[in-house]
Specification:
Layout lengths: L2 H21 L5 H16 L10 H15 L5 H4 L1 H26 L5 H11 L4 H10 L4 H31 L4 H35 L5 H23 L3 H14 L1 H7 L1 H39 L5 H33 L9 H9 L5 H8 L14 H26 L14 H6 L19 H19 L5 H22 L2 H31 L5 H18 L9 H22 L3 H28 L10 H22 L4 H29 L4 H26 L1
Helix pairs in contact: 1-2, 1-13, 2-13, 3-10, 3-11, 3-13, 3-16, 5-6, 5-8, 5-14, 6-8, 6-17, 7-8, 9-10, 9-11, 10-11, 10-13, 12-13, 13-17, 14-15, 14-17, 16-17, 19-20, 19-26, 20-25, 20-26, 21-22, 21-24, 21-25, 24-25, 26-27
Length: 710
């Protein structure tokens, strides 16, 4: 298949995997992507035309640059010693000791290939590490240690990997030369990233001062940065492009606050574009992993040296070796910390050490590195045991994901599924904030609420503000806004309220709607009896009421999706208007009758509801207040819309009222977020996320205003 069609298929599979993940939340999306790739490869004999020389550039450069951009500060800076020790010394220990043990396990695999395999398996997925560590409730010091290490161990692992691959390709290895080359490529790579990133930032500043501050242009320039830095460093200086892009990312992060102050729109757009890129690249890598598995398996078996069970055993034992090395290292770190702080050293945290070892889920960097292994060596012969290396690496990735998925429910009471880089959406990106320095209020003194509850709370405050500002001349705009808020609140309540509570609300609303529909039917009969409407209008209105009554008999909670409901109403109105136009000699009269019906039946419904709740044999307190209010707002909204149909055209005034009320409502939402934060009901992270949601809403409002003015 040509590369263009292959890329389109890979992206479609990534999107499809996330749809499946929405329903199978207990399975990491990375495993779903691997499974989809495997199915496509087996059923349709699909293969991806891989060019190994561009794999590091296409995948590694942006992934590591993005890690550098998210490099944490404050607490992690205070732990820089242990973090860098883990990121460097643990990687090299894993490479040397792990490579030796893998070589002993698989003698037919050359020692340098075993070293390369161990090196590329040493980097961990930072999102998965963070997800497991938080839910396992590791101590803060250990949490920051494993999280910080996972963000920067990619570079050291890839350097060791490239050395081992080079030794295999050339067939020559000198320790002295390797040490000298290591210092050269590391130092020059660091300087290259520093110089080129400084030059790019200086160029951006100059262009801004010259008036070239277009957001799209600057966003594309920033997206191109890691690819340019990597290529120039590798091709011209022959140093480490990996270190260069990490350095460039960290330097970008260091000037991040200044960028936010100068151009918040650029910051917003850039972050979202990067989220899209990382989301796509990670997903594509795991889909390719699934596609390549049958190829690697068949080549391993056809080679005649190993059978399927032996290959699976090698993959499992390699995972065990990596986990044991990581666990032992963490155990030694915890023991050293306790001895250093003169604490009891008889129980140095074996459970925490094992959890730290299991948290080392392998991800996209490992897979991209393995796929970059050349097909041949310098002599022209095939790269030794390349297929087995690919199979074992893929197996370790899958086993680490499965082990974490199985282990997580046993060590945490949280319902949150395992997150990986491939599932790092907006929410997970915001949660990986390791440098928050706010003082959290203990959860045992104040009830922590979910984000859906918090959003519903601030939206109710917005409704209260709109009610406060509602006047006779802006009621249509006010009720339109309130109704929109009510529908969003109801959807949020479906997420966080217990099923029994929501069932009670729905039952209350069904009972109250039956009362209001009876009032509407009685009002219609009075209008027809008084000959205020024709038989045609009467029949159409009666059918609408009958349709609503039939919907009430359906199972509560199983309503038609909003999109389908929208098109159903759209076509219904279209056919009704067409019937008026084709069969009626007085279309204006029928429209006027319809507006009269809308007003009078809505008034009758409100009156009927009030009389029902006020009757002596009905306990008004048994009904949910939100259900009553939601129903009243809907009918008042109908009255105001019917009035607007008969009034002179004041659409510009209506839009002005909507915008004015919306701005005040957003202000009320911001106040609500601050009050929740000060009361300790939400964390700093959640407050930031909620404020971001309000900011987005405000941006959408501004965009609509600009489009209206244009």
């Amino acid at each position: 298949m040509p590369i263009v069609e292959a890329v389109i298929l890979l992206i479609v599979l990534v999107l499809f995997s996330n749809i499946i993940s929405h329903y199978l939340t207990f399975i990491p999306v990375s495993l779903i992507q691997i499974a989809l790739g495997l199915i496509v490869a087996l059923v349709w004999q699909f293969e991806v035309p891989l060019e190994t020389d561009w794999f590091l550039l296409l995948f590694i450069a942006p992934l590591l640059y993005n890690d550098g951009r998210r490099f944490p500060r404050r607490e992690l800076w205070r732990l820089r010693g242990p973090i860098f020790a883990n990121a460097i010394w643990l990687v090299f220990l894993t490479t040397i000791l792990g490579g030796f043990l893998i070589y002993e396990l698989i003698p037919k695999m050359p020692f340098t290939v075993a070293l390369a395999l161990a090196a590329i398996l040493s980097p961990t997925d930072p999102v998965a590490v963070q997800s497991i560590s938080k839910q396992a409730k590791l101590p803060d010091s250990l949490l920051h240690l494993v999280s910080g290490e996972s963000l920067i161990n990619d570079a050291s692992g890839l350097i060791a990997f490239k050395y081992a691959i080079a030794a295999t390709v050339t067939g020559a290895f000198s320790l002295g030369t390797a040490v000298g080359d290591f210092f050269y490529i590391s130092i020059v790579g660091f300087l290259s990233g520093l110089i080129f990133m400084t030059a790019i930032q200086l160029l951006m500043d100059i262009l801004r001062r010259q008036g070239i501050d277009d957001v799209i242009f600057n966003t594309v320039l920033q997206i191109a940065t890691p690819f340019v830095v990597y290529l120039v460093t590798e091709e011209i200086t022959h140093a480490s492009g990996v270190i260069a892009v990490v350095t460039a990312g960290v330097l970008y992060h260091a000037r991040e606050n200044r960028i936010v102050e100068d151009s918040p729109e650029l910051k917003l757009v850039t972050e979202k574009v990067w989220d899209i890129i990382i989301y796509s690249l990670n997903g594509i890598v795991f889909v390719i992993l699934g596609i390549e598995l049958p190829v690697a398996t068949s080549k391993v078996i056809k080679g005649g040296q190993f059978n399927t069970w032996q290959a699976l055993f090698f993959a499992f034992m390699t995972w065990v070796i990596i986990v044991v090395i990581r666990t032992a290292w963490t155990y030694g770190y915890v023991l050293f910390e306790r001895l250093n702080h003169k604490q009891q050293a008889d129980k140095p945290g074996l459970r925490m050490s094992i959890l730290s070892g299991l948290s080392g889920v392998r991800g996209a960097v490992t897979m991209a590195g393995v796929l970059s292994v050349p097909m041949t060596i310098a002599s022209g012969a095939g790269f030794p045991t390349r297929s087995l290396m690919l199979f074992v690496a893929s197996g370790v990735i899958i086993i680490s994901l499965v082990a974490a998925t199985v282990t997580l429910p046993l060590i945490s009471t949280s319902r949150q599924p395992l997150q990986t880089r491939a599932s790092a959406s907006d929410e997970s990106a915001n949660e990986i904030d390791l440098d928050a320095d706010g003082e959290e209020i203990p959860s045992d003194t104040v009830r922590q609420i979910s984000e859906d509850e918090a959003r519903a709370y601030i939206m109710r405050l917005a409704i209260s503000k709109i009610e406060e500002l509602r006047r006779p001349n802006n009621q249509r705009a006010a009720y339109d806004l309130i109704l929109d808020y009510q529908f969003v609140i109801r959807r949020l309540e479906m997420n966080y309220r217990a099923d029994t509570a929501m069932q009670k609300v729905l039952e209350d609303e069904i009972k109250l709607r039956e009362v209001t529909l009876a009032g509407e039917r009685a009002s219609l009969k009075e209008l027809r009896k008084g000959e205020k409407i024709t038989q045609t209008s009467y029949v159409g209105a009666i059918r609408r009421i009958e349709n609503l009554e039939s919907r009430l008999t359906q199972v509560a909670g199983h309503t038609m999706p909003s999109v389908l409901r929208y098109w159903r109403v759209f076509f219904k109105h279209m056919f009704r208007n067409a019937a008026y136009w084709l069969h009626s000699e007085d279309t204006d009269r029928l429209h006027a009758e319809n507006n009269l019906i809308e007003r009078e039946t809505a008034k009758a419904a409100i009156k009927s509801l009030s009389q029902y709740l006020a009757s002596s044999d009905v306990d008004e307190t048994q009904f949910d207040n939100q259900a009553v209010y939601h129903l009243l707002v809907q009918y008042r909204n109908r009255i105001e819309r019917a009035k607007a149909e008969t009034a002179p055209d004041h659409e510009e005034l209506y839009q002005h009222q909507i915008n004015k009320l919306r701005v005040r409502a957003l202000g009320a939402e911001r106040t609500g977020i601050q009050s929740l934060l000060e009361a300790g009901n939400i964390t700093w992270n959640m407050a930031s996320h909620l404020r971001q949601y309000v900011n987005y809403s405000e941006n959408v409002l501004v965009m609509s205003l600009n489009s209206d003015e244009a």
